[in-house]
Amino acid sequence: MTQLLLLIVFLLVLGHVPPGRSEFKRCWNGQGACRTYCTRHETFMHLCPDASLCCIPYGVKPAAAHKP
User: Fold this and answer.
1) Which pLDDT band holds residue 9 (cuts at 50, 70, 90)?
2) Which of 10, 30, 33, 35 has its CA 20 to 30 A from that of 23?
């Protein structure tokens, strides 16, 4: 009986957990991460759809525009 109760509680708690790793949303073609604050090894490029910062590591450079 206690195992059934624990299973029900576990399933209820599991239903309230957001799917995936929501704190690691990706941006800038998968090279950046959406965060509230950027680390000291990252730079801010633009805003993510949820109004957080798109943080890009300093080693990653945006693709240069190709001239025809």
Assistant:
1) confident
2) 10
**Domain residue limits at 58:** 19-62
What is d(CA 26, CA 56) in angstroms, rounded to the nearest whole number? 10
Residue 67 lies in a domain: no
CB neighbour burial string for 14-37, b if at least 16 within 10 angstroms, e if fewer: eeeeeeeeeeebebbeeebbbbee
pLDDT top residue among 16 and 41:
41
Number of domains in the chain: 1
Whether pLDDT at 6 is above 60: yes
The CATH code of the domain that includes 28 is: 2.20.20
Task: Name the pairing type of β-strands 32-35 and 42-47.
Answer: unpaired
